Amino acid sequence: MFIFHKDTQLEDLGNGVSRRILAHDGKMMAVEVMFEQGAIGPMHNHPHEQLTYVLSGEFEFTIGDEKHIVTAGDTLYKEPHIMHGCVCLKAGTLLDTFTPVREDFLKR
Description:
The protein is mostly beta strands. It contains 1 helix and 8 strands.
């Protein structure tokens, strides 16, 4: 499967956050998430495993009881059901990979 960036749609989630759903099948999904400086990814949890790769920017991430500042090249792992969220300190983009697919993202 090939997914070309020009063929994907950017979805404005409001409050300085937008997302682009990339490749996905029944087992895995890649999502690009863009944050303006000061935008917040509210604390939440879900039953999916999630890897986040920081493509650009600077973020203060909380995963469970841990809080760290991350920048381009850093990777975060979120186990299922763990509370997590972030604050964007410098505008940037994250690449999130989920397993299984976030069906809730596809229903919008």
